[in-house]
Design the sequence.
């Protein structure tokens, strides 16, 4: 089994207090936007799809109001090809949640089966997706492909090596990914459970969040999983941590 860390772009947050409420107003923070590829003997899984590859054509980035500037330097499509796994060959797609910085390239995977929590899918395709920060224009095509809706944790390949964990709060059906690697050991990939290692250490819930109490319960559960597994937490948006991880052509086993 192999785990690749992929670059889904970078996000310049223009007001970090939206994600760390006690930060000074207008403090800026650069976030990573990592995606991941799992190559398993029983299939391939892409976890999150980052910002749209189309943003690579915007050298100054794409500004989202007073919240953030999105930038893409290397397309996800090209990275997957370099990893020997072209997007149209991917078997499974799992999204931590439906916010725009995690669904930007879902159209690359028309044949992949989507794993998503039932309440997240209902919110994303319901009557008021905007209430959750979702934009169906980014992912409407997902209605046309196979979907496996979940009501809790899910063992992707049936051998315990790759397990989706239901950890709601940031959105109604947010989830994280536990990957038990033979050599590296277990890794818990966060989704947006938290947005930085500092926020994890302090159990900070962002202002842009669906349910603070649910988020705190999910953090507690994640802490239990980390302790039980002896796992390492990879925070997808923590720029310093993610930049230090191995990148293509390297991978984790």
Sequence:
């Amino acid at each position: 089994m192999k785990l690749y860390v992929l670059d889904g772009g970078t996000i310049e947050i223009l007001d970090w207090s939206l994600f760390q409420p006690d930060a000074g107003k207008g403090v800026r923070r650069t976030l990573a936007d990592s995606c991941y590829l799992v190559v398993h003997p029983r299939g391939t899984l892409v976890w999150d799809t980052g910002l749209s590859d189309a943003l690579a054509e915007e050298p100054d980035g794409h500004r989202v109001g007073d919240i953030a500037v999105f930038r893409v330097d290397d397309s996800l499509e090209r990275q997957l090809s370099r990893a020997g796994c072209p997007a149209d060959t991917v078997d499974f797609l799992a999204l931590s949640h439906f916010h725009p910085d995690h669904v930007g390239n879902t159209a690359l995977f028309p044949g992949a089966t989507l794993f998503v929590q039932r309440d997240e899918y209902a919110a994303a395709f319901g009557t008021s997706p905007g209430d959750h920060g979702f934009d169906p224009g980014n992912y409407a095509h997902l209605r046309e492909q196979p979907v496996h809706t979940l009501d809790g944790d899910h063992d992707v390949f049936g051998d315990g090596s790759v397990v989706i964990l239901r950890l709601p709060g940031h959105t109604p059906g947010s989830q994280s990914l536990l990957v038990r690697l033979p050599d590296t050991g277990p890794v818990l990939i966060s989704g947006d459970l938290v947005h930085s290692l500092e926020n994890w250490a302090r159990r900070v819930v962002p202002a842009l969040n669906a349910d603070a109490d649910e988020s705190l319960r999910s953090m507690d559960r994640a802490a239990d999983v980390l302790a039980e597994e002896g796992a390492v937490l990879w925070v997808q948006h923590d720029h310093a941590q993610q930049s230090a991880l191995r990148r293509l052509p390297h991978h984790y086993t």
About this structure: The chain has one domain: 2-243.
